[in-house]
Write a structure and sequence with these properties.
alpha+beta; 8-stranded mixed sheet; 2,3-Dihydroxybiphenyl 1,2-Dioxygenase, domain 1; 22% helix; globular; binds zinc ion; 3 helices; 134 residues
Length: 134
């Protein structure tokens, strides 16, 4: 297990990515995830990545986050081996999840969010790589 990525809420993807480019990092694909009303860019960083998140609508969770707290660290994503089994285990223990179901996100990876109320105030994303060869 390792940290898959850190999600950072930004007002402008263009402005945010230029800092990382100035630091000599390569900003990978940008893509829009309609279901989360967000446009994102991935910045590889060793075995992890920084995920820059820009809202695509005022109702986006990212827009509401920035309205309340300003730009900043939005979530920490940990890669797990068997997400379905992990979610079952957490549910049995009464861990609060943001959604009941596992979702499919950027690049086909699977993810679910653990509510900050159950994770020491941190929005924790659990994710699993898409099945190989599909
Ligand atoms: Zn994420």
């Amino acid at each position: 297990m390792n940290i898959d990525h850190l999600g950072v809420a930004v007002k402008s993807l263009a402005a945010a990515r230029s800092l990382y480019e100035d630091l000599g990092m390569k900003v990978l694909h940008e893509e829009t995830v309609e279901g989360e009303q967000v446009r994102l860019a991935m910045v590889p960083l060793g075995e992890s990545r920084i995920e820059l998140l820009e809202a695509t609508s005022p109702e986006s969770p990212i827009a509401r986050f920035i309205q309340k707290r300003g730009e900043g660290l939005h979530h920490v994503a940990v890669r797990v081996r068997d997400l379905a089994a992990t979610v079952e285990r957490l549910k049995k223990k009464g861990t609060r999840l943001v959604s009941d179901d596992i979702k499919v996100g950027a690049g086909g990876h699977l993810y679910v969010f653990v509510h900050p109320a159950s994770a020491g105030g941190v929005l924790l994303e659990l994710c699993e790589d898409p099945p190989q060869g599909v």
